[in-house]
Specification:
single chain; mainly alpha; 2 domains; about 0% strand
Length: about 300
């Protein structure tokens, strides 16, 4: 990102007007990462928020997590079923879902939320197909969280730069070029740059912000961020081939064969991987609906 683009970004985006994430997101993340934590402690934090509690229960009893077990009626049971790491991810998903509500000038916010969930789940899945000898260790929780937030910049542009963003969408459709290239021309920076700005503002690690910022321009990523950036790029490509998110960025970009090699993923398994991605898309569609469904008070 050039200094000129950075200056335009900082001048035109009102970062202070972007809603903060719910406090429970960071509180639960800290508790889960505490080596002395317990199911009761995590469940207690969740139970302090009625809406969060209801949605955690719905998700824990959904086909995503309860494929062959009896329904659970308590938050403690939900945490035990989902697990600590996944509970943290689910709470972030629920907290972020509130950023994808309200009216939109240009984009379907619910479709964008489904897309973000699919990228998060798909990226986490792809880690299991990589060759650690080539990529080094990859944090699955980090890649999930980054996938959730990688396109939050689209929401911000839609809200804060509606006229310019409509112009971007029209020119992208007319020219059949990637939207981020058109964004640079018309706005001076891309939605990925805005996503990184928001993630840093919310206090997420700089590595996550870099991965989000470079997911269209992976050649700009540092060696430390490159494996996660390539995974995010591959997840987006595979989801686009199944029409998850294609209406948001309008065209499907080809995937550089180098990405398969650099991640150590056997390209002959592409059909198998795509089938697994399709399953994740179905789970994302269900989770998107459940994350935004509230209910009455539930037992802890």
């Amino acid at each position: 990102m050039t200094m000129n683009a950075l200056a335009k970004l900082n001048e035109s985006i009102k970062i202070e007007s972007i809603p903060s994430l719910p406090s429970y997101v960071l509180e639960i993340a800290r508790e889960v990462e505490d080596t002395d934590t317990s199911t009761n402690k995590v469940a207690g934090l969740i139970s302090q928020d009625i809406g969060l509690s209801a949605r955690i229960l719905k998700l824990a009893n959904s086909p995503i997590y309860a494929r062959s077990t009896k329904p659970t009626a308590s938050i403690k049971g939900a945490v035990e079923r989902v697990g600590f790491a996944e509970t943290k991810n689910v709470c972030l998903s629920i907290g972020l879902s509130e950023q994808f509500t309200g009216s939109s000038h240009t984009i379907d916010l619910f479709k964008l939320w489904e897309h973000s969930l699919a990228i998060a789940m798909g990226s986490q899945l792809l880690v299991s197909y990589t060759n650690p000898e080539k990529t080094g260790p990859i944090n699955k929780d980090l890649i999930y969280s980054t996938g959730l937030m990688h396109d939050i910049g689209l929401v911000v542009l839609d809200q804060q730069q509606p006229a310019l963003f409509r112009e971007v969408k029209a020119e992208t459709a007319a020219s059949e070029r990637p939207c981020w290239e058109v964004e640079y021309e018309i706005i001076g920076y891309s939605h990925a740059d805005v996503s990184a700005l928001v993630m840093r503002h919310w206090g997420f690690p700089s590595l996550m912000a870099e991965v989000a910022q470079c997911h269209h321009e992976y050649e700009l990523s540092t060696p430390k961020a490159r494996p996660s950036t390539l995974i995010l790029r591959m997840a987006e490509y595979l989801c686009h081939t199944k029409k998850m998110g294609d209406q948001l960025e309008l065209i499907e970009q080809k995937l550089d064969p180098m990405i398969w090699r650099e991640l150590g993923i056997d390209k002959t398994r592409e059909d198998e991987i795509t089938e697994a991605i399709v399953e994740k898309i179905s789970e994302a569609e269900l989770m998107a609906m459940l994350c935004r469904t509230s209910a009455t008070k539930v037992p802890a």
